[in-house]
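Retro notes - structure team

What went well: the batch runner handled both jobs without manual restarts.
What didn't: labels got mixed up in the shared folder, which is why I'm recording both outputs here explicitly, each with its sequence directly above its tokens.

Job 1
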Amino acid sequence: MAELANVLRTWRDRVSPEAVGLPGGPDRRAPGLRREELAALAGLSVDYVVRLEQGRSTNPSPQVLGALTRALRLNQDERDHLYRAAGAAVPPALGVPQHITPGIQRIVDRLGDTPVSVYSAAWDPLLWNPLWSALLGDPSIYSGREANLVWRWFTADHSRVLYEEDARRAFARDLVADLHAASGRYPVDGQLAELIADLRRASPAFEELWGTSSVGRHVEGHKTIDNPTVGRVTLDCDVLAAPGTDMKIVVYTAVPGTTDAEKLQLLRVAGLQSFATES
């Protein structure tokens, strides 16, 4: 429990009294919270906090660790480290993250000349730029369950992406394996569980693939899109992980100097103008 004792002392010292609504002052000897202040914030006895910081108390309960996490204002990575240092199982995330961070928003904003979108771990579209809409169609025309990429793929796919049969089967396997992995990371997310249950009822193909229990991620591929403005265009599709959010940033790019790159450039002009007019 030496690591637990060390992080508790270190993290207590860095939390200012003002940050947790306590009075500060120049006569304080502790650089951060006093032990009695941490104990009060976490609902613990001062003696128990002392024993934890001295490594004399073992196996703190998940409830105690949760209270310390809140009192010390830990982020998710720090919380996970606290649980591991205490020899406890890291609690699962409560639900699929859907909050677009400022960093992700900046990424999308700065890739204005590239079709880019952001999906949740369950493949719900959260954000996209105008060039994405010009290339693949406006995601905002869908709502609720119909907006989910996996649902549309297995129940009523109207995608502009063209697939050879082998590529179609591979993409379907990737989607199901990806959703399987998400269900393991978010076991208490009711909406995700409902999506999976409905897919299993609505699609025999999904049910068959779900039964294989494959777990994985769809990360890249070459996609041919039948676009109404520029015709067929083949692009590289990469799925990037957004650190700390479990979101997917999907980016389409063309090899420079190719006909496909020229078509994408044309779409930036003609397609975006058309999309702006329709909007």
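Job 2
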Amino acid sequence: MNAQRFTTPFDARSTAADVVAGLDLTGQRAIVTGASSGIGVETARALAAAGAAVTLAVRDLVAGERAAEDIRATTGSQLIGVAPLDLSDQGSVAAFVSAWEGPLHILVNNAGVSATPEMRTAEGWELQFATNHLGHFALTNGLHPALAAAGRARVVSLSSIAHVQAPMVLDDVSFRERPYDRLLAYGESKTATALFAVEANRRWAGDGITVNAANPGAVTTNLGRHLTEEDLAQLPAYDFKSPQQGAATSVLLAAWPQLDGLGGRYFEDCNEAPRYNPEAPLQGVADHALDPAAAERLWQVSLDMLAAAQRG
């Protein structure tokens, strides 16, 4: 953990609109994945309201266009685009990257799937790890030249409190050697997204790219559609946020000027998270999600998986 936690004037009740109040993002270009609903659309809305040109990267283009129209209507901004992106499909990721032109100032890796039944991609990868981590890993690496060209770019990697009980099993990220557990698989995928921020920031800080992880908190969105009544009964008594509040931490990491150059950290409720304490199980970041050795190894595992897929 960092010796000095970074704090802000914002908290769990703050909204994305609160965070961008008074900010001017004119001239900046942003991508938000999974921006057709929930936290993603509210993240995109706040960035657009502050003047950024925002691309909604979505699986469902009809839903994406609907969200874009809503953002245009509520912000007055016409600088809203929609582009197809299926993070579970490496061909789709590659097509998105090849279509992008020019610098990229903000990338919010927001999209995700949660608690799915055992499902695998065409490569045989477990779906949650493949979507939540590997898809975003390939996307961000592919967009690295655009991020570097921006001069001072921000990347936000969405994690979850679910990571705390799920250290990465780096020898079996796709659950080939152990019984599939959909909640554990989700937790591990969110440990991976936190570790990605650690290693990406280490590698790319010299390019002016700042990478942090965000836990949006508990928000009722489409992400929970695979949770059963039994799953829900086992969950702690979360204090649920609105989507606008859930988007606040992402927007803070994407746009708040005071965070320039501060990377490789894990934020929740608009502040850097404290070290996880089992006595306060609904907050904090576990040591395994900030472990630089695990982060470096995960990066290599991810590169190896993508290389093997390209070889066929």
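One thing worth noting from job 2: The chain has a mean pLDDT of 94.
We'll revisit the folder naming next retro.
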